[in-house]
Design the sequence.
């Protein structure tokens, strides 16, 4: 998952399609990089929904997303809308299966160093 964030267009330049071009570039770049999901925390639900983003519960987002929220003055009363776009044309990466550890084989644990 990647985040579309800090997207801004100068007030005098709004309505010219610049924001849409920026979001399309982010979506195209995500496809190029093999990123299947994009998310955004936004106040502009209608804008992002034009690109297929859907509103989701904030609790469904990874905890890493909330690391910036710790210092935010709105932390306990966040009014941003969480939205996600799933790029279904991007293949799901299948991690190779790990070889199981045979039964009876112990994995050594190194002692803690007191230094």
Sequence:
């Amino acid at each position: 998952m990647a985040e579309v964030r800090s997207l801004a267009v100068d007030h005098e330049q709004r309505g010219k399609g610049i924001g849409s071009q920026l979001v399309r570039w982010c979506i195209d770049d995500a496809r190029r990089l093999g990123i299947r999901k994009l998310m955004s925390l936004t106040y502009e639900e209608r804008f992002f929904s034009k690109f297929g983003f859907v509103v989701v519960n904030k609790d469904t987002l990874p905890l890493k997303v909330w690391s910036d929220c710790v210092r935010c003055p709105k932390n306990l009363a966040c009014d941003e809308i969480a939205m996600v776009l799933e790029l279904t044309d991007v293949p799901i990466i299948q991690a190779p299966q790990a070889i199981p550890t045979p039964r009876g084989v112990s994995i050594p644990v190194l002692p803690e160093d007191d230094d």
Notes: The first strand starts at residue 2 and ends at 3.
